[in-house]
Amino acid sequence: MKGSIRRRSKNSWEISLDIGRDSSGKRLRKFVNVKGSKRDADRKLRGILVSLDRGIPLDSKTITVSDFLRRWLADCVSVQTRPRTYERYESDVRLHLEPVIGHLKLSQLSPSDIQTLESDLLLSGKSSSSVRHVHVVLKSALKKTMKWGIVYRNVADLVDAPRVQTTEIDPPDIGLAMRIFDEAFKGPYGPPIAFLAQTGCRRGETLALEWSRVDLEAGIAHITKSLQRIGRQGLKFTDPKSRQSVRRVKLGSRIVEILRERRGLQLLRQVELSEVWEENDLVFPGPIGKPLDPATLTRNFIKIVRKLGLDGVRLHDMRHFHASQMYANGLQLKDLQQRMGHSSVSVTADIYTHVDIGMQKAALEAFEESMSDA
């Protein structure tokens, strides 16, 4: 990159930058006016050339928050994260960030702008966890502006993210789970619900499971992918939530029996519907072999629990049910983390150590009983 300085008038200088040629071979130039001395112009030229060497655009001071966020989504988020993550980030940018601060110059964005944005979102009824996620998205984007040299501080660091009030997980007990199973097996969604509850697998992992990844003799399922609905792209098989989510899950004898029976019935169904069946090797496909939409499984689970008068129970609570029961029955946190596919032991501990209270209660009752017998 080359540049030159030309005096326009007293204390006025013009910097000319040769920025290459266009597709037709025509030379392209960029002009920048500087007020002050020749030394000021020299300093400005050196600064521009250093910035260009670092990949910082000449018009960095005119870049808006919206301009940068869109570039960040396209160049970074879309290629470095899972599709569902990109979809969530893009939604936060489009619905919450762009309408309020998108028009502001990136270089002029202030902590006050961010604080006002987040306060208004909370006042509008958004949950603290949703607003905190918006904060995380903006903070991540602004961190990249620092790395690229566009700004020299992350103003989101100066704003405290909303505190999220965590609610203790209250998974179904065994009696409640059995009622749900009994009702679920009256229809076609019993097997996937039972599998989820008896393995702790996530909904998407359950619906993406292939027969080739199940060893019924050894009683092991290999979890290698997930089924997700990605916006307009529709249903897509994706990588699991984290690297730790790729795992082997030991199957109990009951779920192995359920899978054996399901395999036989599924083979018969393939023969009966051979003209329309779409073979995908899925353990829990839709009626004609296509992937079953995760939302369909959730909707039918809601119908099941409502029929039982259990409106507050979610499908994901069956995963919590499994983890809580495994932990209460002695499975160590590290082993539970691996079984559940959590990214770290601390995540597992934060979610499930509340069952210690239940274990304490059982131990206390046993202690008191022994004391009364003494």
Give a topology summary.
Blueprint: E1 2-9, E2 12-21, E3 27-35, H1 38-53, H2 65-80, H3 83-101, H4 111-123, H5 128-147, H6 174-184, H7 190-199, H8 203-208, E4 214-215, E5 220-223, E6 226-230, E7 234-238, E8 247-250, H9 253-272, H10 294-307, H11 316-328, H12 333-340, H13 345-352, H14 356-373
Antiparallel strand pairs: 1-2, 2-3, 4-5, 5-8, 6-7
Helix pairs in contact: 2-3, 3-4, 3-5, 4-5, 6-7, 7-9, 7-11, 12-13
Structure overview:
The chain is built from 14 helices and 8 strands. It has helices spanning about 40-55, 65-80, 85-100, 110-125, 130-145, 175-185, 190-200, 205-210, 255-270, 295-305, 315-330, 335-340, 345-350, 355-374; strands at about 1-10, 10-20, 25-35, 215, 220-225, 225-230, 235-240, 245-250. With about 375 residues, it is of the alpha+beta class. It folds into 3 domains: about 1-60, no CATH class; about 65-160, DNA polymerase, domain 1; about 175-360, hpI Integrase, Chain A (Orthogonal Bundle), CATH 1.10.443.10.
